[in-house]
Amino acid sequence: MKNNIKLERYNQDWYSRGRNGLIVMIWWFVQATIFRFSLHNMYKWRNFLIRLFGANIGTDVRIRSNAKFTYPWKVSIGDYSWIGDNVQFYSLDEIHIGSNCVVSQESYLCTGSHNIKDPHFGLITKPIVIKDGAWVASDVFVYPGVTINEMAVVAARSTVIKDIPANEVHAGSPAKYVKKRFEEDELL
Question: How many CA atoms lie within 13 A of 44 on its CB side?
Answer without folding.
Answer: 0
